[in-house]
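Priority: medium. Attachment 1 of 2:
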């Protein structure tokens, strides 16, 4: 992918946890993601993460589970693996061809957007959740 997983893991994990909280609280997910990401000038990633996580749930047929504090969930580790290319979607998520294609596109789009927005200055620290 051209970008090290370690450089985007805190961002992806924080975004996933924010998204999960918003969904559970029936709040607008993109707005909550934007509020989280704007401080680091990454607000434009809010629809990217919203789409990725919605399509993940659609393909998996279940809710995305998040971890707590420094402990990542199996779903978070899978998502990070999908984004860094160490995990293939077909190996971990059984779904229809349509749902799989949609998720594959979201994964590729997210990779592109991460590569375009993450710099050594962006998202300089792990966020607590």
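Attachment 2 of 2:
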């Amino acid at each position: 992918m051209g970008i090290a997983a370690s450089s985007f893991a805190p961002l992806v994990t924080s975004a996933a946890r924010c998204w999960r909280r918003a969904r559970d609280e029936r709040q607008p997910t993109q707005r909550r993601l934007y509020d989280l990401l704007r401080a680091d000038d990454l607000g434009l990633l809010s629809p990217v993460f919203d789409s990725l996580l919605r399509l993940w749930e659609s393909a998996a047929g279940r809710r995305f589970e998040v971890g707590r504090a420094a402990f990542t969930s199996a779903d978070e580790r899978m998502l990070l693996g999908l984004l860094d290319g160490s995990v293939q979607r077909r190996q971990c998520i059984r779904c229809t061809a349509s749902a799989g294609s949609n998720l594959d596109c979201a994964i590729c789009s997210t990779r592109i957007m991460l590569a375009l927005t993450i710099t050594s200055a962006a998202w300089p620290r792990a966020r607590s959740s």
